[in-house]
Specification:
Number of helices: 10
Largest sheet: 7 strands, parallel
Bound molecules: uridine-diphosphate-N-acetylgalactosamine
Strand content: 15-25%
Shape: globular
Distance between the termini: 38 Å
Number of strands: 13
Order of helices and strands: EHEEHEHHEHEEHEEEHEEHEHH
Radius of gyration: 19 Å
């Protein structure tokens, strides 16, 4: 069968399924590896009849070579399978180590064993910074992750660097800031804040803000994140690291007010105790994203929020 082959770990998840959409749209063949712990088959439902897509239920932390034998060596592995909650990583650090660092090592081990080295593109995170640096935060500031999640994402980045230098595995790590958009699952208390607020605002329910609501985040739309991932896969650098954000920040109270307004204004805001280990301000420096990858995360927050609200409406 024709078409470049890509593997997407976590391809049934929120970000992964949008990457699969984009790869299939441009004619690639795609193998998804997903253990469905948080991923959903319904995220890929529109491709059910597409013979360019293969979906394999598999836990990446147990190794991937055995599951990929029949498909050939991919040009790129988008490694998006992860345990995504910072709070859970603090409660279960060894589980997080295995899922978030162990899986990266498994992907790199697979890549180094093949002469045609697949490129590994990792979903890293702003969590590698901790809150040491004054925003906007650039890639070369000292890194002080505060959670096992951030530590294991950073360890994964280091592993990419080491496999690139030692074994010639081309690699890129993108440090995602707060990604949002359709298919983000609001069902856990640690789900992305926009997915939670969007669902509650749409239903006219009370919105709960942790802390004084003055904390800020750099919210980046999933469509822009996908463009950055594809650009990173095509980039010639053997070991690229870049932030993926918009370069602007908004307070959580402003975010809540915007969503309430977009939904007709029925919800009220209530304030609760701040979360432990909360980062006060987060905003990416995006020069490298623009200069190296040619990407500007251009989706305006209001447009991205409307798209997100539209999709929760359809899903309800
Ligand atoms: C995000 C990422 C995380 C990691 C981290 C890096 C998500 C879901 N998590 O964590 O994976 O990369 O950034 O720093 O993208 N909030 C409320 N009410 C709610 C839920 C959240 O007020 O019902 C607040 C929360 O206290 C925080 C902000 O909203 O101040 C964003 O919370 P989040 O869980 O969406 O993401 P964050 O920044 O903790």
């Amino acid at each position: 069968m024709s078409g470049t082959l890509a593997v997407v770990t976590g391809g049934a998840g929120f970000i992964g399924s949008h990457v699969v959409d984009a790869l299939l749209r441009r004619g690639d063949r795609v193998v998804v590896l997903d253990d469905f712990s948080t991923g959903k088959l319904s995220n890929l439902a529109e491709h059910a009849q597409n013979d360019h897509l293969t979906i394999i239920e598999h836990d990446v932390s147990t190794g991937i070579a055995g599951r990929l034998e029949s498909y050939g060596v991919p040009a790129t592995i988008f490694h998006l399978a992860a345990q995504v909650s910072v709070v859970s990583s603090i409660a279960k650090p060894l589980f997080d180590l295995n899922v978030n660092y162990g899986s990266t090592l498994q992907v790199l081990e697979y890549a180094r064993l093949h002469v045609a080295r697949p490129k590994v593109v990792l979903a890293s995170s702003a969590a590698v910074y901790g809150d040491a640096a004054e925003p906007p935060v650039a890639e070369d500031v000292p890194l002080r992750p505060l959670s096992p999640y951030g530590i294991h994402k950073l360890a994964s980045e280091y592993a990419l660097g080491a496999y690139s230098a030692t074994h010639g595995v081309p690699a890129a790590a993108l440090r995602f800031f707060n990604v949002y958009g359709p298919r983000q699952d609001p069902s856990s208390p640690y789900s992305g804040v926009i997915s939670i607020f969007a669902e509650r605002a749409r239903r006219g329910q009370t919105i709960k803000i942790f802390g004084d609501g003055k904390q800020t985040r750099d919210f980046v739309y999933v469509g822009d994140v996908v463009r950055a991932l594809l650009a990173a896969a095509a980039h010639p650098s053997p070991h690229l690291i870049a932030n993926v954000g918009t370069g602007s920040e908004i307070t959580i109270t402003e975010l809540a007010r915007t969503l309430i307004e977009l939904c007709g204004g029925d919800s009220t805001i209530e304030y609760a105790e701040a979360r432990a280990g909360e980062i006060a301000r987060s905003r990416a420096r995006v020069d490298r994203l623009r200069e190296q990858l040619g990407i500007v995360a251009e989706t305006a927050l209001a447009d991205g929020l409307r798209a997100t609200l539209g999709s929760t409406e359809r899903a309800a």
